[in-house]
Amino acid sequence: MAESENLVAEIEALGAKLGAARESIAKKIVGQRDVVDLSLIALLSGGHALLMGLPGLGKTLLVDTLSTVMGLSTSRVQFTPDLMPADILGSEVLETGADGARSFRYIEGPIFAQLLMADEINRASPRTQSALLQAMQERSVAVAGVNHPLPAPFHVLATQNPIEQEGTYPLPEAQLDRFLIQIRVDYPDRDTERDILLATTGNVTEEAIKVFAPEELMTAQSIVRRMPVGDGVVEQILDLVRACRPEAEEATDLVRETVSWGPGPRAAQALMLTVRARALLQGRLAPSVEDVAEMAEPVLSHRMALSFAARAEGRHLNDVIADTVAHKTAPKVAA
Q1: Are strands 259-261 and 305-306 parallel, antiparallel or unpaired?
Q2: Quick one: pLDDT at residue 95?
Q3: Long-range contacts for 160-165 (Cβ within 8 Å, ≥24 apart)?
Q4: pLDDT digits (tens, 9 = 90+) for 306-315
């Protein structure tokens, strides 16, 4: 009982702190509430996020603001076709001492930061992409047979231009799975765009302030993993993920007709973490079925692929996910 009461108190205190963090972020980021919340969910879950959107929609500003508010050391890498793995991970250099002795010294690359901004990740070659994504998974860098642990906490927020643009290399499916969630950044509506104009073109601009420290973020991540999850929510997660696999017995007719391959167990793990983080961000003590429905697209959209025939017919993966969510969660919500 005492442990439960302590957890409730920790969740409530963290909820208040997250509210202050959102207010600080809002000073720099006008609108885009869903994008901000999903980014915070990724950090609270201890994962990485892939921001999908056209240039000029504030993705870089968002990452810079998050680093300030969450108190994380940050670095930014602009991905280009000629970027090499050593440009990110670092490399060994040969040095000559005063006595003439030579030795190798490892110089850390920009990946040694608590929040790495990987800008336009799909403009780099597959070799460079793989080097980054391997480090994301292992949270360490191996150079010349020596492992160098990355700082904790360690998060990557990568931006990606639409694949249709010239000079891009699509990320392989296995590497996309390294990202906890995919966040779509769309054009703002007219009123929001008007607010952006007024807020960013005057003499005075608002500045975000630090709300968290790295240790506090890691404590928050621990609280997320301790949050209780009801059996009904667990079953909904399993129902939804399994229903998105075309060969599974639980698959819907639309999934069988349109999906080439579906999400693996890592998707269920991601849903379990992100629904907890979403509930925490909204000041609730436990996640609900509504959280599962809301997190389905960000968690599943980069872990599935449409068949060639479905793409030729003009089908969209987001519509397939929405249909599956409606079939697998709506009846239980009504009950």
Answers
A1: antiparallel
A2: 77
A3: 160/50, 160/51, 160/52, 160/120, 160/121, 160/122, 161/54, 161/55, 161/120, 161/122, 161/123, 162/52, 162/54, 163/122
A4: 888 888 888 8
